[in-house]
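Handout for the seminar on molecular recognition.
Each group receives one record of this type.
Step one: identify the two inputs.
Step two: read the structure output and locate the region that could contact 6-O-phosphono-beta-D-fructofuranose.
Step three: write two sentences on what you found, then compare them with the reference statements printed after the record.
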Amino acid sequence: MDNIDLTVTKLGKATIPSPLDDVNYENEFSTVIYEKDAQKIIEEYQKNGKILAFEKAGPRGMIYHDPAWSKAAIITAGGLCPGLNDVVKGLTRTLMVRYKVPIVYGIKYGYQGLIPSYGHEPILLTPDIVDDIHESGGTILGSSRGRQDEKTMVDTLERMNINLLFCVGGDGTLRCAHDVVKEIARRRLNISVIGIPKTIDNDINFIDKTFGFETAVYATNPVIMAAHNEAKGAPNGVGLIHVMGRDSGFIAAYATLANTHINYCLVPEVEFQLNDGPQALFPSLARRLKQRKHAVIIVAEGAGQYLFEDDSAKRDKSGNKLHNNIGVFLRDEIGKWAVENNLDINVKYFDPSYMIRSLPAIGTDAVFCQLLAQCAVHAAMHGCTDMVVGHWNDCFTHVPIAMATSQRKKICPKSQLWTSVKSVTWLY
Ligand code: F6P
C-alpha cells in the first residue's frame, strides 16, 4: 500500500469549456475508493488520515486541449483481443462527433506505424470508415509486438502535430507508452498519452476487468461442450483444452465456473504435480475415471512450467517469456501414464487459443469497450496523460501507467474465485 501512488499527471490547467452540453460532468475531485472492505477503509483512515482512491473517469466541464486545433492518433498493439475495433470506433466517434476533433489518424501495426522506416502509412479515420468495424474481430489498424525507439516515435508525433495519442494494449504496450510520455515531457510537448487496457488474460494490475476477457470466456463454451461430448463418447475419455493465460489463469478459471463440465482446472498461480504429491493430477484422474468414466481438463498456457526440464529463456518481442506448451505436454504425459498403468484411455486435445481472441466482442464486452473509449477521450481532452482507463468497484477510473504495469494481476489462491473453482473440480 505504501508504494501505491494513484496521482494522474496533467499537462496543465484545463481552461476551455467542454463542448459537451448534454452530459453530467464529473467533479474534478471525484474518486473511486481502492479498498473494498468497510472495516479496512476505517483502519486505513485511522492509520494514514487519508484513503487511497482512483481519480474517477468521465467528462469534465473544463478541457485542456482545444478540439478545433487537435489531432488524434490511435494505436493498437500486442496480441489480438475481442473488442479492438469497438474501441477504435468508440474513440473515433467520441473524438470527431462529440468533441469535433477534426483529424483522427489510425496508426498501422502498433508502434511500428510511428517509425517511418517501416513504411506503414497512417490512415485517416472518420465516422464513415469506422461505421461497420465493430462487426469484425481483429483490428482494422493491424498490430505488432515489440518496443520501438521513443525518440523516433515522438519525432513522428511532432511532425504530424498530434496532441492526443491513444494506445490500446496490454502491459508491454503500456510500458512503451510510458517511455513515449517521458520523451514528450523531456521535450516539453503538450501531448496527452492515454492507454486503454487490452488483454484477454485480464492480468492488468489495479483494473478489475479488461475488455475482450468476457468474450474469451464465453467463446470457450462450445469447445468445452465438444471436449465433454468427446470425453463421454468413449470409455475413459479425457477432453483436454489448452487456453491462453501466460501468467494468469483467469480464462481457465472463469471458463470452469461458466461451464462446470470441467473437472480439472490448471493455472499458473497454483502448483500441481503429475504422479506424486498432495496435488497430483494422475492419481486423481484415475479415481475420477474409475467413478465417472470421463474427465475434462482445462489448462492455461502458463501452468506447470516447472514440469519442463528445459525451462527456455526465450522471449517474445514484447519481452514476455515464451512458455513450453503445457497442453501438448499433458496430452503426451497422460498417454504415457495410461500405457504404464495399463489403462485404456482416449485423450482428445483442443487448442482454441487464437480462435478465441480473434472474435468480435459479445454484447456486454462491446458495451464495455464503448465506455472505455469514451472515458479515454474525456481524459485526454481534459489534459490527463501517462494514464490508462481502468475499471474498479463498478466505476471507470484513471490509473497511472506506472501503477498498472507495476506487476501482473494474478488469481489469489485464497480468493473466492479460486475457492469456487476448487469446489466444482476434483484436484485441489
Ligand atoms: O495477449 C496475451 C496473450 O493472450 C497471452 O496469453 C499469450 O501468451 C499471448 O497473447 C500470445 O500471443 P502471440 O502468439 O501473438 O505472441
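Reference statements: The two ends are 31 Å apart (CA to CA). The longest strand covers residues 237-243.
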